[in-house]
Amino acid sequence: MALQTVWFFLWGLLWAVYFITDGFDLGTGALYLSLGRNEEEKRIILNSIGPLWDGNEVWLITAGGVTFAAFPIVYAVMFSSLYSALMLILFALIIRGVSLEFRNKIEDPRWKKAWDICFFIGSFAPALLFGVAFANIFMGIPINEEGVYQGTLFTLLNPYGLLGGLLFLLLFMMHGSLWLAIKTEGELHENAVRVLHGLWPVLLVVAVTFLVATKFFTGLYDNYIAHPILFVVVLFTVLALLGIKVYSTQKSYWKAWFSSAATIAGATFFGIIGLYPIMLPSSIDAGYSLTAYNSSSSPLTLTIMLVVAVIFLPVVIAYQAWTYNLFKGKVTEEDISHEEAY
Amino acid sequence: MDVLLLSRLQFAAATYFHFLFVPLTLGLSVLVAVMETKYVRTDDEIYLKMTKFWGRLFLINFAVGIVTGITLEFQFGTNWSRYSAYVGDIFGSLLAIEATAAFFLESTLIGVWIFGWRKLSKKAHAVVMWFIAGASSLSAVWILIANAWMQNPVGYTIRNARAELTDFSAVVFQKMAILEILHTLAAAYILSAFFVMGISAYHLLKKQNVDFFTKSFRLALIFGLIFSIFIIAEGHMHGVGVAEKQPAKLAAMECLWETSEGAPACLLAVPDEKGEKNLLEIGPMPKMLSILAYHDPGAEVKGLKDFPKDERPPVLITAFSFKAMVGLAFYFVLMTVIGWFKRNRLTESPLYLKLMLYSIPLPYLANELGWTLAEVGRQPWIVYGLMKTSDAVSPISASQVLVSFIAFILVYGALGAIGFYLIAKNAKKGPDSTAS
């Protein structure tokens, strides 16, 4: 299998892992103001992601870094074309990060309220914007033969883009609500459960709409029609989505969370597989599209990076899994009574 | 204001800002790890208090350092897409390795250190901070290898209308990279030492928690003394490296206009860039530049006039940042040597303590001056001798960049102000409020 193809799917995998990990951080943050009805509940929510969010966020840095390393032309064209959207995402993530760290440093209600709002916006906005960005990547953006983007931020805010934004937001909120169901107890837990059951039908409708809309707005299904066995990915994703509901009804919230993770992974790979080998379609002319083959690094670089990835990624996953396990269990009143807690 | 100037200002602002926080992360992580290790070894509660007090300041600083770094990785793509496309085959992999090998480790473990006090043994918890210190330094290593490649591109060839990697180990192990790594880490450790010493001085002047802050001061003092002396020697070697690989930068650093054998240096020169001469030369030292740069009083040093006008860096900024940085470096040696002699009677040396308190910003300034020298001194090249900065910018609208630049100034400005305010507030409070 060609190096470029291996890297194409590895690239997709990194984005999937980012969405699975930081996805629940962002989703939790998007639900923060509604589920956190008082100071104690807010703090429990913050501490449920406290030990993990920073490590999760690095998957984004890695996905971006790998885009640069393996597909520098895609990195250059994609990031400069999606300039404003990306800047908004980055600033939102900055605000999300510092709000977690700064909130507990001063015991003042107005100070805390300000960071509450920042934490919410810093979670809600990236969730939405990632969806908008990826939907537009699936659909294709107006790049000319020199890879120069011919649109603006508003070009991205088209119906399919916004639908993608809504889908990602719902996927992450579902993921976050399941996370909170696992990590909290008492009334907060009950409310998280209520939210996740309320979200599910909405997510189902939006997901199906997105699947249908993808037929009309993108060329993603071409690969699936040419190789119908690939529809198994769609089936997998739908089953995972159903799994969320089934396991949640049984109150097996960890299984439901893994189903949610599988849904996110499935949705990501639905797009990635549909795109292959294109990475950034041009809506002006198919000949201007960036593919894994015309935009990749040299074979030497791809090989070195593959060795690095094969060595480090399993190690990273192992120690991150260790930290998830270290901090397993409910976040309790006792946990937040300690001085280092958020 | 065109897209090139705005992008340069934006990248500079983002980097200067990020580098206000990174050096302290690099050095204070080591100091806190030492304190926590002392606690594990001695079981003396004072070291636990020190770990928690300095650790609290570390965490506030760490948060701002982390978030402001994110934008930098993406800014190569957003604002310097032509650069990214041209050299990404080499440069991109270095950044990706930084993320996989280092960022993951430090960002994952910071959560463990913050929240894991009761979940890990004392020893394991201390080890975590050592890993954080190691991972931060490792990330510095990779980004500096990347910067060193911009200063002195090696291990590549031009193929397919771009730079392509031919020799990975040449890139990773080149002398310029080693020099930059040693220099930047030492500078970071000096900053961290002066941070701890300065804050300790504040409390010692008020005779508060004297034992606590004397211990803190002395730990930082050793650190600061070693690395202040080290950086003078290493800085010299770094200059020799620059002389070899970036002669235009060297000429600008010393405001040398005429190629000369036995070239002089001076303490300070004020250049007249249009007139291609110096308006003022203070403290001239004959043959000194040849001696410093080539260890040979008769060596020829190329002057600025031997470089085409459009291949010379901005002389005033390059020279001034160099001289100011070196001046500060000697000040740091002086202050740490004095501190060494006063280390057993700090509370009886209020003048010295006051100076150390007011000296806290100086290593910050020195670090930024160093980066100014490194990057402005490399101009007009984005990759020395290979690609000009003006050819590297993204083909995007200036208005977009103007908006993002203003956002950077506002958001980073607010973050910086809040971050430093919180650090100062917590520093002044002292350790008694962080009861374990």
Looking at this protein, list some descriptive labels.
heterodimer, A: 342 residues, mainly alpha, B: 436 residues, two-stranded antiparallel ribbon, two-stranded antiparallel sheet, 13 helices, 71% helix, globular
In short:
The complex is a heterodimer of chains A (342) and B (436). Chain A is mainly alpha-helical and 342 residues long.
List the helices and strands and how they pair.
The complex is a heterodimer of chains A (342) and B (436).
Chain A: H1 3-35, H2 39-49, H3 53-70, H4 72-81, H5 83-102, H6 109-139, H7 153-156, H8 159-183, H9 186-217, H10 221-226, H11 231-249, H12 253-275, E1 278-280, E2 290-291, H13 299-326, H14 333-336
Antiparallel strand pairs in A: 1-2
Helix pairs in contact in A: 1-2, 1-3, 1-6, 1-8, 1-12, 3-4, 3-13, 5-6, 6-8, 8-9, 8-12, 9-11, 11-12
Chain B: H1 3-42, H2 45-79, H3 81-115, H4 122-151, E1 156-159, E2 162-165, H5 168-172, H6 175-205, H7 210-245, H8 247-253, E3 260-261, E4 265-272, E5 277-285, H9 288-294, E6 300-301, H10 315-342, H11 350-358, H12 361-376, E7 381-383, E8 387-388, H13 398-429
Antiparallel strand pairs in B: 1-2, 3-6, 4-5, 7-8
Could you describe the 3D structure shown?
- Chain A has helices at residues 3-35, 39-49, 53-70, 72-81, 83-102, 109-139, 153-156, 159-183, 186-217, 221-226, 231-249, 253-275, 299-326, 333-336; strands spanning 278-280, 290-291.
- With 342 residues, chain A is an all-alpha fold.
- Chain A has one domain (9-223, 277-336).
- In chain A, helix 3 (53-70) crosses helix 4, helix 5 runs antiparallel to helix 6 and helix 6 (109-139) packs across helix 8 (159-183).
- The longest helix of chain A is centred in the N-terminal third of the chain and has 33 residues, at 3-35.
- Chain B has 436 residues and is mainly alpha-helical.
- Helices cover 71% and strands 8% of the residues of chain B.
- Chain B has helices at 3-42, 45-79, 81-115, 122-151, 168-172, 175-205, 210-245, 247-253, 288-294, 315-342, 350-358, 361-376, 398-429; strands spanning 156-159, 162-165, 260-261, 265-272, 277-285, 300-301, 381-383, 387-388.
- In chain B, the strands form four sheets. Chain B has a two-stranded antiparallel sheet with strand order 1-2. In chain B, strands 3-6 form a two-stranded antiparallel sheet.
- In chain B, strand 1 (156-159) and strand 2 form a beta hairpin.
- The longest helix of chain B has 40 residues, at 3-42.
- The interface between A and B is large, with 67 and 72 residues.
